[in-house]
From TrEMBL:
All copies of domain HTH bat-type, residue ranges: 157-208
Domain HVO-0513-like N-terminal: start-end pairs: 16-148
Organism name: Halorientalis brevis
PANTHER family cross-referenced by the UniProt entry: DIMETHYL SULFOXIDE REDUCTASE TRANSCRIPTIONAL ACTIVATOR
Keyword Cell inner membrane: no
Protein's name according to its UniProt entry: Helix-turn-helix domain-containing protein
Keyword terms, alphabetized: Transcription, Transcription regulation
Transmembrane parts of this sequence: none
Transcription regulation as UniProt keyword: yes
């Protein structure tokens, strides 16, 4: 059994309604769908957004998809429990997944740059066939392919943050003693040093927080 993580580039007009809101809304740059149940007469989802409650409330109030919602402030953002008029997760992708022997894992992450990060679990053959179905219909990058061992992938890294970490490893930024600098990372990414530094810092913070959550007393590796 395999676990495959993808980053999918979306045109705005083809994006999930919440994803379009992330792309369009100032002060909101990422939303992660953490749990969902689309089988109910009134589907429900639990999501996290990197914005204050007032911004998230305004976004959800404007989405025709949303019937009602309850919000809770959390670390670095807002959690949203949403009752939907109809279930939508990532329509074009889910249409393909529904015909394959593969299951989506939470979270599904919508980013303001138009990308969607999603992880699927299934047999190697099923994932291979699914990627073949993607063909030219979906613009995607495979960011991880590994045996499924019950652990969870680090959620929410953008493709640019992943590139920054990969560049940092390649130039020796994490070697002991350190043999590479942020300037070297910036040169590999072809960006300013300040941009490279921000990308690396944000990616490191997300990786560390995810690691602490997985290993802290009372944490769980599956859906809590």
């Amino acid at each position: 059994m395999k676990r495959a993580s993808f980053v999918i580039d979306r045109d705005r007009e083809d994006a999930h309604p919440l994803h379009r809101a992330v792309i369009d809304t100032d002060g909101l740059s990422r939303a992660a769908v953490l749990l969902w149940d689309g089988r109910r007469a009134t589907p429900i989802t639990l999501s996290w957004c990197d914005a204050p409650k007032s911004t998230v409330a305004s976004v959800l109030d404007d989405l025709p998809l949303v019937k009602s919602h309850a919000l809770s402030a959390g670390r670095d953002g807002t959690y949203a429990f949403v009752w939907q008029r109809s279930f939508q997760l990532e329509p074009s992708l889910m249409a393909l997944v529904s015909d394959a022997a593969a299951l989506p894992m939470a979270p599904v992450v919508f980013d303001a740059d138009g990308s969607v990060a999603i992880t699927l679990v299934g047999t190697h053959a099923a994932l291979r066939d699914l990627v073949a179905e993607f063909g030219d219909r979906i613009d995607y990058t495979v960011t991880e392919l590994t045996d499924y061992d019950g652990s969870r992938p680090v959620a929410g890294l953008t493709s640019r943050q992943r590139d920054a970490l990969a560049a940092a490893v390649a130039v020796g930024f994490y070697d002991v003693p350190r043999t590479g600098t942020i300037a070297d990372v910036a040169a590999r990414l072809d960006c300013a040093e300040s941009t490279a530094s921000e990308l690396v810092r944000k990616a490191q913070a997300r990786v560390v927080r995810a690691s602490i959550r997985r290993t802290a007393p009372g944490s769980c590796s599956g859906r809590c």
